[in-house]
């Protein structure tokens, strides 16, 4: 039998629950209590497309070193769902722990020899303490939380504090919850061997960092980006962006004197109407956005082409999920790269921003509105379910009060009155961007007919070949301009010079940081470049040119970012080696290390030490 | 070629309205539609309505979808911003534009293909949201630009120019608008400008979702015997229930009077809709009665025209969303960006 795992502030615990059983809030408090003890955690909800009854999991990685990617493997399973028992049992690492409700005895065949089994009669305790069935269910989660706090030495005072914050002003709910917590904690101390080999110890590794999900952060970014119009259609995993925007606005955007709203949110009839509303508002000078996911992007493509060709600012927050078609609606992927970059028929290209965490969701969401106005075109914020729907520890949000909205080239009534020449599609300074007017700007000047058909520099309909080409060339110049406006990539050089590089983006970031540490520990040197936007800056093509082989790590089957790199940087495809993870679970450092070191071995690069797992 | 400019020289004796504009100031480029197209008469009625209401042209935003009707915004109000959007999606773009700036007048022009087929959903949903707009469907029962296919408003049993009989049921836009909660609903005929222009004026002054279905014969593809959208057929079957005159404060604007009992409806903005009853039993203030009457008359083969329903005190989308009085596109950093201190509060609540 394996020795029980002994690890402090570095383990993975997974809760197997039933959807709708009220476990979410107890799980969240578990993660947050550890965070309050100064130890970084990264929790992940793993849930089906279902409201009640199907299995869900909540996986918490505790990592004093601050690794926030999914690790893979489970050190302790809190098995509360009989339906998934066998599968859950299998997932536990040798030497790991199994916590379960022992009210009903299970045959020995249902357990593993190499796992420490901790049974607690949760149902029995609940049935004795409570009569109401709903209470029995809800408090069972809290009693379990109390027991875990004793087993893992999570400070129960931190949990009690969190309960206090959650039920502030609701005494009737607060007291019984604290009582249930105590009940579980005391039972475990009295009847179970506490603590086990997995422990949480106070540390000082969290600092000023905050804990928030990417969707709420992106929505807050829209508030700070000056968005006033939001149109959306419910779709997992993006719905909570619009819901969070409504919540933030209620608090931050109500006119104090009148109680009226400095924003408008419309839940549209479909994604077509959502983007149509955004385009109408953008045309008329308001900052507007929608939030959606892959299927929504597919529906919006005709309108996205209109916004590209008529040059109307729009922000689209694409919280990606598993495709194609309905695909895996509640799983994560980075598989809308191409469908977003080239959305719509004809020759179109759109800037994409790739946030790595909620902090960047906020930053890039605010920046997207400046870019949309400056470039007069749709801007995509490409997040995904892993970032969007999980709370993640990240740097606190920051704001400079001297920052002003960049509304781009807008010709005002005064400028028109002064006789400034206005051509809606006239490039006056070579950056490919023309001045626009807002409707109603001037009584006799500046009006034009916006259209998706081809037109000349003065917005007059024309199907003349040279006129069409002139306009299409200007749009290319504009895309060149975008190159220097979008966020620069971030370079993490290896400790010593190397001919190998790796390119990655978005939610792969935390696992990649960890993987780079692990590779380094093995003596494998790889320069890393995190791409933060499309169009790619010259730094990206420079990075590819500077290395013999570049791994491109992404979470889709077809290596979509690699295709974009081959296409847009004229990179030699033989140089770009895909590392692809696309089963719907977030990519892990273990996976990246295994793939990259295996590929390096093919180039006769051998690690100094063996791969750990 | 829609970019042809008309001569800017005006006859010096052209009459001006109260804000000093002549009728010519409300015109657009020369129409490229077929000679005799009903749509051009509707454009002329829009020009007349805006002239008579003393509207500054640049305070109107005109939006359309795709099709013959959707080309017409190029032919009126040349000093207004226009937006020729994508097929069937004018209503959503208009909704967004309206949210951005509540102070402009929003004129949506669409056709039966644009609004009853590909854009049926957007039409219905913009109406049920109560967007403050004038939504005109130039209804000819046929796809003109693609040369004569039936549209969804073509009556069952009517014949195409090639002699094919339509076997699908027709969508009655007016009935749908009523059911979706439009607060100003009218039907007219492009061949009857005296009836149409006041209906457009009343709709412009209405502060809610105003919908006008204008039967507008297609001279190229749907003006033959066997069509129920031809000039002859509509003239024969047109049953006007009332005649509208719009009064702003003082005296009636239109001088033409029809016989019949008078009824006045004061709209929220101060305008008065003076309705001369042509059918004794028709009550335009009762939605249910209006819907019933429309069904009964339609069964008899009549095309009911006039102001079919009006709610003088409607709620519009801005009222429902409780938006500020200042147009959203005029709010600046001070009103929109909560600042660093507020963000620090957000941060501290997330630890």
Task: Give the CATH superfamily of the largest domain in chain A.
Answer: Pyruvate-ferredoxin oxidoreductase, PFOR, domain III
Shape of chain B: globular
User: Strands of the biggest beta sheet of chain B: in what spatial order?
Assistant: 2-1-3-4-8-7-13-9
Strand arrangement, major sheet of chain A:
11-10-12-13-15-14-21
CATH topology type of chain B: Rossmann fold
Note the total helix count of chain B: 12
Distance between the termini of chain A: 19 Å
Number of helices, counting only DSSP H or I runs of 4 residues or more of chain A? 19
Give the secondary structure arrangement, pairings included.
The complex is a heterodimer of chains A (613) and B (351).
Chain A: E1 7-8, E2 10-18, H1 23-36, E3 41-46, E4 55-63, E5 74-79, H2 85-91, E6 92-101, E7 116-120, H3 122-129, H4 133-152, H5 156-166, H6 171-191, E8 198-199, E9 210-213, H7 214-224, E10 229-232, H8 239-252, E11 264-267, H9 271-283, E12 288-292, H10 294-310, E13 314-320, H11 337-341, E14 352-353, H12 358-375, E15 378-384, H13 385-388, E16 391-394, H14 413-417, E17 449-451, H15 465-485, E18 490-492, E19 500-504, H16 509-521, E20 527-530, E21 533-534, H17 538-545, E22 549-554, H18 560-568, E23 576-580, H19 589-602
Parallel strand pairs in A: 1-8, 2-5, 5-6, 6-7, 10-11, 10-12, 12-13, 13-15, 14-15, 19-20, 19-22, 22-23
Antiparallel strand pairs in A: 2-4, 3-4, 9-16, 14-21, 18-20
Chain B: H1 38-52, E1 60-64, H2 68-71, E2 81-84, H3 90-100, E3 105-111, H4 112-118, H5 120-128, E4 133-139, E5 142-143, E6 149-150, H6 173-179, E7 184-189, H7 193-205, E8 209-215, H8 231-237, E9 238-240, E10 242-248, E11 262-266, E12 271-277, H9 287-299, E13 303-310, H10 317-321, H11 333-336, H12 339-348
Helix pairs in contact in B: 1-7, 3-5, 4-5
């Amino acid at each position: 039998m394996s020795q029980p795992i002994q690890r402090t502030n570095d383990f993975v615990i997974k809760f197997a629950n039933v959807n709708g059983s009220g476990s979410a809030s107890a799980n969240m408090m578990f993660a947050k209590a550890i965070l309050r003890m100064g130890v970084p955690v990264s929790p992940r909800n793993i849930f089906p497309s279902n409201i009640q009854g199907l299995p869900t999991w909540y996986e918490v990685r505790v990592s004093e070193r601050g690794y926030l990617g999914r690790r893979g493997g489970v050190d302790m399973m809190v098995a509360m769902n009989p339906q998934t028992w066998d599968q859950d049992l299998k997932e536990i690492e040798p030497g790991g722990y199994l916590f379960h409700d022992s009210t009903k005895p299970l045959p020995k065949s249902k357990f593993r020899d190499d796992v420490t089994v901790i049974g607690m009669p949760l149902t029995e305790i609940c049935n004795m303490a409570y009569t109401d069935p709903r209470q029995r269910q809800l408090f069972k989660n809290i009693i379990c939380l109390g027991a875990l706090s004793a087993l893992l030495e999570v400070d129960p005072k931190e949990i009690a504090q969190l309960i206090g914050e959650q039920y502030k002003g609701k005494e009737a709910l607060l007291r019984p919850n604290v009582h249930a917590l105590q009940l579980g904690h005391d039972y475990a101390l009295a009847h179970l061997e506490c603590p086990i080999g997995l422990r949480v110890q106070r540390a000082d590794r969290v600092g000023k960092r905050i804990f928030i999900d990417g969707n709420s952060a992106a929505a807050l970014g829209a508030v700070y980006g000056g968005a006033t119009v939001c149109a959306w259609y419910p779709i997992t995993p993006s719905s909570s962006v619009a819901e969070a925007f409504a919540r933030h606005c209620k608090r931050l955007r109500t006119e104090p004197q009148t109680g009226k709203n400095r924003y408008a949110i419309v839940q549209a009839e479909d994604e077509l109407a959502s983007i149509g509303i955004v385009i109408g508002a953008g045309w008329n000078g308001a900052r507007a956005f929608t939030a959606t996911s892959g299927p929504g992007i597919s529906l919006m493509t005709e309108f996205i082409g209109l916004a590209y060709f008529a040059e109307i600012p729009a922000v689209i927050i694409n919280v990606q999920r598993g495709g194609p078609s309905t695909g895996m609606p509640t799983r994560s992927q980075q598989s809308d790269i191409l469908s977003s970059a080239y959305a719509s028929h004809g020759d179109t290209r759109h800037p994409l921003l790739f946030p790595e965490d909620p902090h960047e969701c906020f930053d890039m969401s605010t920046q997207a509105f400046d870019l949309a106005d400056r470039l007069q075109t749709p801007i995509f914020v490409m997040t995904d379910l892993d970032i969007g729907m999980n709370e993640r520890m990240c740097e606190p949000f920051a704001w400079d009060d001297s920052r002003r909205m960049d509304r781009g080239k807008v010709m005002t009534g005064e400028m028109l009155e002064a006789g400034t020449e206005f051509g809606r599609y006239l490039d006056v300074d070579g950056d490919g961007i023309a001045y626009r007017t807002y409707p109603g700007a001037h009584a006799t000047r500046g009006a034009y007919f916006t259209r998706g058909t081809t037109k000349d520099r003065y917005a007059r309909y024309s199907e003349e070949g040279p006129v069409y080409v002139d306009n299409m060339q200007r749009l290319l110049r504009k895309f060149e301009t975008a190159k220097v406006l979008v966020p620069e990539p971030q370079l993490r050089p290896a400790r010593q010079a190397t001919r190998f590089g790796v390119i990655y983006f978005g939610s792969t970031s935390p696992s990649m940081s960890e993987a780079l540490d692990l590779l380094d520990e093995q003596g494998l040197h790889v320069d890393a470049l995190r791409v933060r936007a499309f169009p790619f800056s010259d730094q990206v093509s420079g990075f590819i040119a500077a290395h013999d082989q570049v791994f491109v790590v992404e979470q889709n089957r077809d290596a979509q970012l690699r295709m974009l790199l081959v296409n847009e940087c004229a990179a030699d495809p033989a140089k770009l080696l895909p590392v692809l993870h696309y089963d719907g679970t977030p990519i892990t450092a273990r996976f990246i290390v295994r793939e990259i070191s295996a590929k390096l071995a093919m180039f006769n690069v051998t690690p100094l030490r063996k791969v750990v797992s | 070629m829609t970019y042809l400019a008309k001569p800017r020289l005006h006859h010096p004796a052209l009459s001006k309205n109260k804000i000093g504009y002549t009728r010519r100031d409300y015109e657009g480029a020369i129409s490229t539609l077929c000679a005799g197209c009903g749509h051009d008469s509707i454009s002329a009625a829009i020009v007349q309505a805006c002239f008579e209401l003393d509207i500054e042209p640049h305070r109107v935003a005109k939006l359309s979808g795709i099709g013959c009707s959707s080309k017409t915004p190029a032919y009126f109000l040349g000093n207004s911003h226009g937006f020729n959007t994508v097929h069937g999606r004018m209503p959503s773009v208009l909704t967004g534009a309206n949210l951005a700036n509540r102070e402009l007048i929003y004129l949506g022009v669409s056709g039966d293909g644009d609004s009853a087929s590909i854009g049926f959903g957007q039409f219905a949903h913009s109406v049920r949201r109560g967007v403050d707009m004038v939504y005109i469907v130039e209804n000819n029962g046929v796809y003109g630009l693609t040369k004569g296919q039936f549209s969804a408003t073509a009556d069952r049993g009517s014949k195409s120019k090639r002699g094919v009989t339509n076997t699908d049921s027709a969508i009655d836009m007016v009935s749908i608008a009523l059911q979706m909660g439009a607060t100003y609903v009218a039907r007219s005929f492009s061949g009857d400008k005296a009836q149409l222009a006041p209906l457009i004026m009343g709709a412009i002054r209405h502060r809610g979702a105003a919908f006008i279905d204008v039967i507008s014969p297609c001279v190229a593809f749907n003006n033959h015997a066997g069509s129920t959208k031809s000039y002859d057929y509509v003239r024969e079957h047109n049953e006007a229930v009332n005649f509208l005159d719009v009064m702003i404060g003082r005296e009636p604007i239109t001088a033409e009077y029809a016989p019949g009992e008078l009824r006045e409806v004061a709209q929220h903005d101060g305008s008065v809709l003076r309705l001369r009853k042509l059918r004794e039993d028709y009550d335009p203030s009762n939605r249910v009665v209006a819907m019933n009457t429309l069904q009964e008359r339609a069964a008899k083969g009549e095309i009911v025209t006039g102001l079919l329903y009006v709610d003088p005190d409607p709620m519009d989308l801005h009222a429902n969303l409780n938006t500020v009085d200042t147009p959203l596109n005029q709010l600046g950093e001070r009103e929109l960006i909560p600042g660093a201190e507020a963000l620090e509060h957000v941060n501290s609540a997330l630890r």
